[in-house]
Write a structure and sequence with these properties.
Blueprint: H1 4-19, E1 41-44, E2 50-55, E3 61-68, H2 82-88, H3 99-108, E4 114-118, E5 121-129, H4 133-145, H5 151-169, H6 172-185, H7 206-216, E6 222-228, H8 232-243, E7 268-272, E8 279-288, H9 292-305, H10 312-319, E9 327-334, E10 337-346, H11 351-367, H12 372-389, H13 393-405, H14 416-421, H15 425-435, E11 442-447, H16 453-459, E12 464-466
Parallel strand pairs: 2-6, 7-11, 7-12
Antiparallel strand pairs: 1-2, 3-5, 3-6, 4-5, 8-10, 8-11, 9-10
Helix pairs in contact: 2-7, 4-8, 9-12, 9-15, 10-11, 11-15
Length: 482
Protein backbone atom coordinates (compact mmCIF):
# COMPACT_ATOMS: atom_id res chain seq x y z
CA UNK A 1 0.00 0.00 0.00
CA UNK A 2 1.33 3.40 -1.02
CA UNK A 3 1.43 5.57 2.14
CA UNK A 4 2.92 8.64 0.48
CA UNK A 5 -0.48 10.34 -0.18
CA UNK A 6 -1.41 9.97 3.49
CA UNK A 7 1.94 11.36 4.65
CA UNK A 8 1.62 14.28 2.24
CA UNK A 9 -1.89 15.02 3.49
CA UNK A 10 -0.68 14.93 7.09
CA UNK A 11 2.17 17.32 6.33
CA UNK A 12 -0.28 19.66 4.61
CA UNK A 13 -2.46 19.68 7.75
CA UNK A 14 0.56 20.53 9.88
CA UNK A 15 1.48 23.35 7.50
CA UNK A 16 -2.04 24.77 7.59
CA UNK A 17 -2.04 24.57 11.40
CA UNK A 18 1.26 26.44 11.50
CA UNK A 19 -0.09 29.17 9.23
CA UNK A 20 -3.14 29.45 11.50
CA UNK A 21 -0.90 30.26 14.49
CA UNK A 22 0.94 33.47 13.44
CA UNK A 23 1.53 34.67 17.05
CA UNK A 24 4.48 33.83 19.28
CA UNK A 25 2.36 34.96 22.24
CA UNK A 26 -1.41 34.85 22.78
CA UNK A 27 -3.32 37.74 21.19
CA UNK A 28 -4.52 40.48 23.55
CA UNK A 29 -8.00 40.04 25.03
CA UNK A 30 -10.88 41.64 23.21
CA UNK A 31 -12.53 44.75 24.61
CA UNK A 32 -15.16 44.00 27.29
CA UNK A 33 -18.70 43.76 26.00
CA UNK A 34 -21.65 45.36 27.73
CA UNK A 35 -24.04 43.08 29.55
CA UNK A 36 -26.85 42.29 27.11
CA UNK A 37 -29.61 42.20 29.69
CA UNK A 38 -32.66 44.28 30.37
CA UNK A 39 -32.73 46.39 33.49
CA UNK A 40 -34.81 44.54 36.10
CA UNK A 41 -38.32 45.86 36.69
CA UNK A 42 -40.02 46.15 40.08
CA UNK A 43 -43.49 46.08 41.51
CA UNK A 44 -44.96 45.79 45.00
CA UNK A 45 -47.93 43.90 46.39
CA UNK A 46 -50.31 45.65 48.82
CA UNK A 47 -48.85 43.61 51.71
CA UNK A 48 -45.41 45.16 51.09
CA UNK A 49 -43.73 42.29 49.22
CA UNK A 50 -41.26 43.59 46.62
CA UNK A 51 -41.21 41.69 43.35
CA UNK A 52 -38.19 42.07 41.04
CA UNK A 53 -38.38 40.70 37.51
CA UNK A 54 -35.24 40.15 35.41
CA UNK A 55 -36.51 39.07 32.03
CA UNK A 56 -34.40 36.86 29.78
CA UNK A 57 -36.07 35.38 26.75
CA UNK A 58 -34.80 32.55 24.59
CA UNK A 59 -34.57 29.70 27.11
CA UNK A 60 -37.81 28.67 28.89
CA UNK A 61 -36.35 28.71 32.40
CA UNK A 62 -37.13 30.82 35.47
CA UNK A 63 -35.27 31.01 38.78
CA UNK A 64 -37.43 32.06 41.71
CA UNK A 65 -35.82 33.31 44.94
CA UNK A 66 -37.77 34.53 47.95
CA UNK A 67 -35.41 36.59 50.12
CA UNK A 68 -36.22 37.69 53.65
CA UNK A 69 -33.96 40.63 54.50
CA UNK A 70 -32.76 39.30 57.83
CA UNK A 71 -30.28 36.60 58.65
CA UNK A 72 -27.53 35.54 61.01
CA UNK A 73 -27.06 39.03 62.45
CA UNK A 74 -30.48 38.54 64.13
CA UNK A 75 -29.28 35.52 66.16
CA UNK A 76 -29.93 36.23 69.86
CA UNK A 77 -27.04 36.09 72.36
CA UNK A 78 -26.00 32.49 73.14
CA UNK A 79 -28.06 31.20 70.17
CA UNK A 80 -25.57 31.48 67.32
CA UNK A 81 -26.80 29.55 64.31
CA UNK A 82 -30.51 30.10 64.97
CA UNK A 83 -31.21 31.88 61.67
CA UNK A 84 -29.25 29.26 59.71
CA UNK A 85 -31.09 26.44 61.44
CA UNK A 86 -34.47 28.12 60.91
CA UNK A 87 -33.88 28.53 57.20
CA UNK A 88 -32.41 25.06 56.82
CA UNK A 89 -35.54 23.49 58.30
CA UNK A 90 -37.99 25.26 55.98
CA UNK A 91 -37.75 22.52 53.36
CA UNK A 92 -37.85 19.74 55.96
CA UNK A 93 -41.59 19.57 56.43
CA UNK A 94 -44.71 21.75 56.32
CA UNK A 95 -48.31 21.45 57.47
CA UNK A 96 -49.12 19.67 54.20
CA UNK A 97 -46.01 17.71 53.24
CA UNK A 98 -43.09 15.86 54.78
CA UNK A 99 -39.51 16.54 53.76
CA UNK A 100 -39.41 13.56 51.32
CA UNK A 101 -42.71 14.66 49.78
CA UNK A 102 -41.42 18.21 49.25
CA UNK A 103 -38.24 16.89 47.64
CA UNK A 104 -40.24 14.58 45.39
CA UNK A 105 -42.60 17.38 44.37
CA UNK A 106 -39.69 19.64 43.43
CA UNK A 107 -37.99 16.82 41.54
CA UNK A 108 -41.19 16.15 39.60
CA UNK A 109 -41.03 19.77 38.42
CA UNK A 110 -37.43 19.29 37.32
CA UNK A 111 -36.05 21.49 40.09
CA UNK A 112 -34.52 21.37 43.55
CA UNK A 113 -36.00 23.31 46.46
CA UNK A 114 -33.26 25.02 48.48
CA UNK A 115 -33.27 27.13 51.64
CA UNK A 116 -30.48 28.81 53.59
CA UNK A 117 -29.51 31.87 55.60
CA UNK A 118 -26.49 34.13 55.83
CA UNK A 119 -25.62 37.69 56.74
CA UNK A 120 -28.61 39.90 55.98
CA UNK A 121 -30.66 37.24 54.24
CA UNK A 122 -32.75 34.09 54.59
CA UNK A 123 -34.06 32.56 51.41
CA UNK A 124 -35.92 29.85 49.52
CA UNK A 125 -35.13 29.16 45.86
CA UNK A 126 -35.95 26.91 42.91
CA UNK A 127 -35.27 26.87 39.14
CA UNK A 128 -37.78 25.27 36.76
CA UNK A 129 -39.00 25.49 33.19
CA UNK A 130 -41.43 28.33 32.57
CA UNK A 131 -44.59 26.14 32.35
CA UNK A 132 -43.77 24.71 35.81
CA UNK A 133 -43.29 28.08 37.53
CA UNK A 134 -46.82 28.29 38.96
CA UNK A 135 -46.45 24.91 40.68
CA UNK A 136 -42.92 25.77 41.82
CA UNK A 137 -44.08 28.99 43.48
CA UNK A 138 -46.70 26.95 45.31
CA UNK A 139 -43.84 25.03 46.94
CA UNK A 140 -41.82 28.17 47.67
CA UNK A 141 -44.79 29.82 49.36
CA UNK A 142 -45.60 26.69 51.33
CA UNK A 143 -42.15 26.14 52.81
CA UNK A 144 -41.65 29.85 53.56
CA UNK A 145 -45.02 30.29 55.22
CA UNK A 146 -45.97 26.92 56.73
CA UNK A 147 -42.94 25.08 58.14
CA UNK A 148 -43.66 22.76 61.06
CA UNK A 149 -40.19 22.45 62.63
CA UNK A 150 -40.80 18.83 63.59
CA UNK A 151 -38.74 17.66 66.55
CA UNK A 152 -37.19 14.78 64.62
CA UNK A 153 -36.05 17.13 61.84
CA UNK A 154 -34.65 19.62 64.36
CA UNK A 155 -32.61 16.91 66.05
CA UNK A 156 -31.39 15.54 62.72
CA UNK A 157 -30.22 18.94 61.43
CA UNK A 158 -28.62 19.80 64.76
CA UNK A 159 -26.67 16.53 64.77
CA UNK A 160 -25.54 17.04 61.18
CA UNK A 161 -24.41 20.58 61.90
CA UNK A 162 -22.53 19.56 65.04
CA UNK A 163 -20.74 16.82 63.08
CA UNK A 164 -19.77 19.41 60.49
CA UNK A 165 -18.45 21.75 63.17
CA UNK A 166 -16.22 18.99 64.58
CA UNK A 167 -14.57 18.72 61.19
CA UNK A 168 -14.42 22.50 60.70
CA UNK A 169 -12.94 23.21 64.12
CA UNK A 170 -10.18 20.69 63.44
CA UNK A 171 -9.12 22.66 60.36
CA UNK A 172 -6.64 25.49 61.15
CA UNK A 173 -7.82 27.62 58.21
CA UNK A 174 -11.47 27.48 59.22
CA UNK A 175 -10.71 28.16 62.87
CA UNK A 176 -8.45 31.10 62.03
CA UNK A 177 -11.15 32.58 59.80
CA UNK A 178 -13.78 32.39 62.54
CA UNK A 179 -11.41 33.92 65.09
CA UNK A 180 -10.40 36.77 62.75
CA UNK A 181 -14.04 37.77 62.23
CA UNK A 182 -14.59 37.67 65.98
CA UNK A 183 -11.57 39.93 66.46
CA UNK A 184 -12.97 42.36 63.89
CA UNK A 185 -16.51 42.60 65.25
CA UNK A 186 -16.09 41.54 68.86
CA UNK A 187 -19.19 40.46 70.77
CA UNK A 188 -21.58 42.29 68.45
CA UNK A 189 -24.26 40.43 66.44
CA UNK A 190 -21.87 40.37 63.46
CA UNK A 191 -19.02 38.62 65.26
CA UNK A 192 -20.36 35.12 65.82
CA UNK A 193 -20.20 32.08 63.49
CA UNK A 194 -23.33 32.03 61.32
CA UNK A 195 -23.52 28.22 61.49
CA UNK A 196 -23.47 28.31 65.27
CA UNK A 197 -21.05 26.76 67.75
CA UNK A 198 -20.88 23.43 69.59
CA UNK A 199 -22.15 25.27 72.68
CA UNK A 200 -24.95 27.30 71.05
CA UNK A 201 -26.64 24.67 68.88
CA UNK A 202 -27.81 22.42 71.79
CA UNK A 203 -29.50 25.48 73.35
CA UNK A 204 -31.76 26.08 70.33
CA UNK A 205 -35.28 24.76 70.88
CA UNK A 206 -38.41 24.58 68.77
CA UNK A 207 -39.89 27.72 70.32
CA UNK A 208 -36.74 29.65 69.34
CA UNK A 209 -37.12 28.45 65.75
CA UNK A 210 -40.81 29.39 65.64
CA UNK A 211 -40.07 32.86 66.99
CA UNK A 212 -37.24 33.43 64.52
CA UNK A 213 -39.44 32.31 61.63
CA UNK A 214 -42.28 34.65 62.63
CA UNK A 215 -39.92 37.60 62.91
CA UNK A 216 -37.99 36.87 59.71
CA UNK A 217 -40.40 35.61 57.05
CA UNK A 218 -42.93 38.39 56.57
CA UNK A 219 -43.99 40.15 53.36
CA UNK A 220 -42.99 43.65 54.44
CA UNK A 221 -39.36 42.51 54.85
CA UNK A 222 -39.13 40.16 51.85
CA UNK A 223 -38.32 40.30 48.14
CA UNK A 224 -39.42 37.85 45.44
CA UNK A 225 -36.91 37.67 42.57
CA UNK A 226 -37.98 36.09 39.29
CA UNK A 227 -35.22 35.79 36.69
CA UNK A 228 -35.68 34.24 33.27
CA UNK A 229 -38.41 33.75 30.71
CA UNK A 230 -41.15 35.77 32.39
CA UNK A 231 -42.70 39.18 31.85
CA UNK A 232 -43.84 41.68 34.45
CA UNK A 233 -47.55 41.08 33.94
CA UNK A 234 -47.19 37.33 34.50
CA UNK A 235 -44.95 37.95 37.51
CA UNK A 236 -47.57 40.22 39.06
CA UNK A 237 -50.28 37.60 38.57
CA UNK A 238 -48.24 34.75 40.02
CA UNK A 239 -46.90 36.78 42.94
CA UNK A 240 -50.40 37.90 43.84
CA UNK A 241 -51.75 34.36 43.56
CA UNK A 242 -49.15 32.81 45.86
CA UNK A 243 -48.22 35.64 48.19
CA UNK A 244 -51.02 38.20 48.00
CA UNK A 245 -52.78 36.88 51.12
CA UNK A 246 -49.53 36.64 53.13
CA UNK A 247 -49.74 38.70 56.29
CA UNK A 248 -46.99 39.52 58.75
CA UNK A 249 -47.26 37.73 62.07
CA UNK A 250 -47.90 39.76 65.19
CA UNK A 251 -44.82 41.17 66.82
CA UNK A 252 -41.80 43.13 65.59
CA UNK A 253 -39.64 41.98 62.68
CA UNK A 254 -36.24 40.46 63.28
CA UNK A 255 -33.77 43.10 64.30
CA UNK A 256 -31.18 44.31 61.80
CA UNK A 257 -28.49 45.85 64.00
CA UNK A 258 -26.07 48.31 62.49
CA UNK A 259 -22.63 46.97 61.66
CA UNK A 260 -20.27 48.40 64.29
CA UNK A 261 -16.89 50.00 63.68
CA UNK A 262 -13.95 47.65 63.94
CA UNK A 263 -13.56 46.37 67.49
CA UNK A 264 -10.71 48.09 69.36
CA UNK A 265 -9.14 44.95 70.73
CA UNK A 266 -6.03 42.96 69.92
CA UNK A 267 -4.94 43.01 66.28
CA UNK A 268 -3.30 39.57 66.27
CA UNK A 269 -4.29 36.33 68.00
CA UNK A 270 -2.68 32.90 67.89
CA UNK A 271 -4.85 29.83 68.48
CA UNK A 272 -2.68 26.97 69.66
CA UNK A 273 -3.65 23.68 67.99
CA UNK A 274 -1.31 20.99 69.27
CA UNK A 275 -0.59 18.43 66.57
CA UNK A 276 -1.94 20.50 63.67
CA UNK A 277 -0.20 19.52 60.44
CA UNK A 278 -0.39 23.05 59.06
CA UNK A 279 -1.15 26.60 60.15
CA UNK A 280 -4.06 28.70 58.97
CA UNK A 281 -3.63 32.46 58.55
CA UNK A 282 -6.73 34.63 58.25
CA UNK A 283 -7.30 38.37 58.05
CA UNK A 284 -10.59 40.21 58.52
CA UNK A 285 -11.02 43.90 57.77
CA UNK A 286 -14.45 45.59 57.97
CA UNK A 287 -15.23 48.10 55.23
CA UNK A 288 -17.89 50.83 55.02
CA UNK A 289 -20.92 50.56 52.78
CA UNK A 290 -19.90 50.37 49.14
CA UNK A 291 -22.05 52.15 46.59
CA UNK A 292 -21.46 52.92 42.92
CA UNK A 293 -17.82 53.75 42.24
CA UNK A 294 -16.70 52.70 45.73
CA UNK A 295 -18.23 49.26 45.14
CA UNK A 296 -16.32 48.83 41.89
CA UNK A 297 -13.08 50.16 43.40
CA UNK A 298 -13.27 47.60 46.21
CA UNK A 299 -13.86 44.80 43.73
CA UNK A 300 -10.88 45.83 41.61
CA UNK A 301 -8.68 46.15 44.70
CA UNK A 302 -9.66 42.63 45.77
CA UNK A 303 -8.99 41.30 42.27
CA UNK A 304 -5.48 42.75 42.42
CA UNK A 305 -4.77 41.45 45.93
CA UNK A 306 -6.22 37.98 46.06
CA UNK A 307 -9.27 37.46 43.88
CA UNK A 308 -7.65 35.20 41.26
CA UNK A 309 -4.72 32.83 40.70
CA UNK A 310 -2.54 35.60 39.22
CA UNK A 311 -3.27 38.05 42.05
CA UNK A 312 -0.53 39.42 44.28
CA UNK A 313 -1.04 37.27 47.36
CA UNK A 314 -0.94 34.05 45.39
CA UNK A 315 1.99 35.31 43.32
CA UNK A 316 4.09 36.24 46.34
CA UNK A 317 3.16 33.41 48.69
CA UNK A 318 2.58 30.42 46.42
CA UNK A 319 4.23 31.02 43.07
CA UNK A 320 7.43 32.80 44.14
CA UNK A 321 8.04 31.16 47.52
CA UNK A 322 6.06 27.93 47.55
CA UNK A 323 4.72 28.62 51.04
CA UNK A 324 1.13 27.59 50.31
CA UNK A 325 -1.04 25.77 47.80
CA UNK A 326 -3.12 28.91 47.52
CA UNK A 327 -3.58 32.38 48.96
CA UNK A 328 -6.67 34.42 48.24
CA UNK A 329 -9.11 37.05 49.37
CA UNK A 330 -12.73 38.04 48.96
CA UNK A 331 -15.11 40.82 49.93
CA UNK A 332 -18.41 39.74 51.45
CA UNK A 333 -21.29 42.21 51.28
CA UNK A 334 -23.34 43.01 54.33
CA UNK A 335 -26.14 45.53 54.46
CA UNK A 336 -24.57 48.99 54.74
CA UNK A 337 -21.08 47.50 55.05
CA UNK A 338 -18.68 44.86 53.74
CA UNK A 339 -15.93 42.60 55.04
CA UNK A 340 -12.59 41.96 53.35
CA UNK A 341 -11.12 38.57 54.23
CA UNK A 342 -7.85 36.91 53.23
CA UNK A 343 -6.87 33.32 53.95
CA UNK A 344 -3.71 31.26 53.53
CA UNK A 345 -2.81 27.76 54.69
CA UNK A 346 0.91 27.10 55.18
CA UNK A 347 3.47 25.11 57.14
CA UNK A 348 3.63 25.93 60.84
CA UNK A 349 7.24 27.00 60.41
CA UNK A 350 6.37 29.57 57.73
CA UNK A 351 3.28 31.09 59.39
CA UNK A 352 5.13 34.18 60.65
CA UNK A 353 6.63 34.80 57.21
CA UNK A 354 3.20 34.49 55.59
CA UNK A 355 1.75 37.03 58.01
CA UNK A 356 4.58 39.41 57.16
CA UNK A 357 3.99 38.95 53.42
CA UNK A 358 0.25 39.46 53.84
CA UNK A 359 0.77 42.68 55.76
CA UNK A 360 3.32 43.86 53.24
CA UNK A 361 0.98 43.41 50.27
CA UNK A 362 -1.76 45.39 52.01
CA UNK A 363 0.74 48.13 52.82
CA UNK A 364 2.01 48.18 49.25
CA UNK A 365 -1.37 48.58 47.58
CA UNK A 366 -2.08 51.60 49.78
CA UNK A 367 1.22 53.33 49.04
CA UNK A 368 2.26 52.37 45.50
CA UNK A 369 0.24 52.92 42.31
CA UNK A 370 -0.77 49.79 40.42
CA UNK A 371 0.96 49.24 37.09
CA UNK A 372 -1.34 49.87 34.14
CA UNK A 373 -0.90 46.41 32.61
CA UNK A 374 -1.62 44.68 35.93
CA UNK A 375 -4.70 46.82 36.51
CA UNK A 376 -6.03 46.13 33.01
CA UNK A 377 -5.52 42.37 33.40
CA UNK A 378 -7.26 42.23 36.76
CA UNK A 379 -10.18 44.32 35.50
CA UNK A 380 -10.56 42.07 32.46
CA UNK A 381 -10.67 39.01 34.70
CA UNK A 382 -13.19 40.67 36.98
CA UNK A 383 -15.41 41.76 34.10
CA UNK A 384 -15.31 38.28 32.63
CA UNK A 385 -16.44 36.87 35.96
CA UNK A 386 -19.34 39.31 36.15
CA UNK A 387 -20.44 38.38 32.63
CA UNK A 388 -20.23 34.64 33.25
CA UNK A 389 -22.05 34.87 36.57
CA UNK A 390 -25.26 36.10 34.94
CA UNK A 391 -25.27 33.69 31.99
CA UNK A 392 -27.73 31.39 33.78
CA UNK A 393 -31.06 32.35 35.29
CA UNK A 394 -29.89 31.19 38.72
CA UNK A 395 -26.76 33.31 38.40
CA UNK A 396 -28.82 36.30 37.33
CA UNK A 397 -31.14 35.86 40.31
CA UNK A 398 -28.15 35.52 42.66
CA UNK A 399 -26.60 38.74 41.31
CA UNK A 400 -29.83 40.63 41.95
CA UNK A 401 -30.14 39.07 45.40
CA UNK A 402 -26.64 40.30 46.28
CA UNK A 403 -27.59 43.83 45.29
CA UNK A 404 -30.82 43.75 47.26
CA UNK A 405 -29.21 42.37 50.42
CA UNK A 406 -26.51 45.06 50.24
CA UNK A 407 -29.17 47.77 49.97
CA UNK A 408 -28.29 48.60 46.37
CA UNK A 409 -30.61 49.08 43.41
CA UNK A 410 -31.10 46.07 41.08
CA UNK A 411 -30.74 48.54 38.19
CA UNK A 412 -27.00 48.75 38.99
CA UNK A 413 -26.55 45.29 37.50
CA UNK A 414 -26.85 46.63 33.98
CA UNK A 415 -24.01 49.12 34.46
CA UNK A 416 -21.60 47.02 36.55
CA UNK A 417 -19.11 46.49 33.73
CA UNK A 418 -18.94 50.19 32.85
CA UNK A 419 -18.48 51.03 36.52
CA UNK A 420 -15.59 48.58 36.83
CA UNK A 421 -14.04 49.90 33.62
CA UNK A 422 -14.02 53.44 35.08
CA UNK A 423 -11.83 52.46 38.07
CA UNK A 424 -8.29 53.79 37.84
CA UNK A 425 -5.04 53.10 39.67
CA UNK A 426 -5.43 56.31 41.69
CA UNK A 427 -8.87 55.18 42.86
CA UNK A 428 -7.59 51.83 44.11
CA UNK A 429 -4.64 53.37 45.95
CA UNK A 430 -6.82 56.02 47.59
CA UNK A 431 -9.41 53.42 48.66
CA UNK A 432 -6.71 51.21 50.19
CA UNK A 433 -5.10 54.16 51.97
CA UNK A 434 -8.45 55.15 53.47
CA UNK A 435 -9.68 51.73 54.56
CA UNK A 436 -6.80 49.22 54.77
CA UNK A 437 -4.71 50.69 57.58
CA UNK A 438 -2.87 48.33 59.90
CA UNK A 439 -4.87 49.46 62.92
CA UNK A 440 -8.05 48.13 61.30
CA UNK A 441 -6.67 44.74 60.30
CA UNK A 442 -7.44 41.74 62.48
CA UNK A 443 -5.33 38.62 61.99
CA UNK A 444 -5.68 35.17 63.53
CA UNK A 445 -3.19 32.33 63.12
CA UNK A 446 -4.16 28.78 64.11
CA UNK A 447 -1.59 26.00 64.36
CA UNK A 448 1.22 24.69 66.54
CA UNK A 449 2.02 27.91 68.37
CA UNK A 450 5.51 26.95 69.55
CA UNK A 451 6.68 26.94 65.93
CA UNK A 452 5.70 30.51 65.07
CA UNK A 453 4.33 32.47 68.05
CA UNK A 454 7.70 33.84 69.15
CA UNK A 455 8.45 35.25 65.70
CA UNK A 456 5.01 36.86 65.56
CA UNK A 457 5.37 38.32 69.05
CA UNK A 458 8.63 39.98 68.01
CA UNK A 459 6.61 41.91 65.41
CA UNK A 460 3.45 42.38 67.53
CA UNK A 461 4.23 42.38 71.25
CA UNK A 462 0.52 42.68 72.10
CA UNK A 463 -0.21 39.33 70.46
CA UNK A 464 -2.67 37.21 72.42
CA UNK A 465 -2.15 33.46 72.69
CA UNK A 466 -5.24 31.28 73.06
CA UNK A 467 -4.31 28.00 74.70
CA UNK A 468 -5.50 24.64 73.29
CA UNK A 469 -9.23 24.19 73.79
CA UNK A 470 -9.68 27.71 75.21
CA UNK A 471 -11.17 29.32 72.10
CA UNK A 472 -14.78 30.17 72.90
CA UNK A 473 -16.63 31.99 70.13
CA UNK A 474 -19.68 32.37 72.40
CA UNK A 475 -17.86 34.46 75.01
CA UNK A 476 -18.96 38.07 75.30
CA UNK A 477 -15.40 39.35 75.23
CA UNK A 478 -14.37 37.48 72.09
CA UNK A 479 -11.73 34.80 71.50
CA UNK A 480 -8.62 36.77 72.39
CA UNK A 481 -9.36 37.34 76.07
CA UNK A 482 -8.22 34.57 78.45
Amino acid sequence: MNRLPFIAAALACVARAALAQPYDTPPPPAAPRLLAIEAPSELALPNGLRVIVARREGVPLVSAVLVALSGSEADPPRLSGLAAMTAGLLTQGTRRHTAPQLAAAAEALGGSLESSAGWGRSLVSITVTTPKLDAALTLVAEVAREPTFATAEINRLRAQTLDGLKVAYADPGTLAGLAAVRLAYGATPWGHPESGTPASLPRIGRNDLLAMHRATFRPDRSVLILAGDIDTATARTLAGSHFGDWRAAAGPPASSPAVPPVARCTTLAVIDMVGAGQAGVALALPLPARRGHDWATGEVLNAVLGGAYSSRLNEEIRIKRGLSYGAGSAIGARRDSALFQASIQTKNESAAEVVQLLQGELDKIATTPIDGAELAARKTTLIGGVSRSVETTSGLAAAIRTLVVAGRSPAELKTEIETIEAVGAVDVQAYAAAHFGRSDRRIAVAGVAERFAAALRAEVPSLVLVEPGALDLDRAAGPAVP
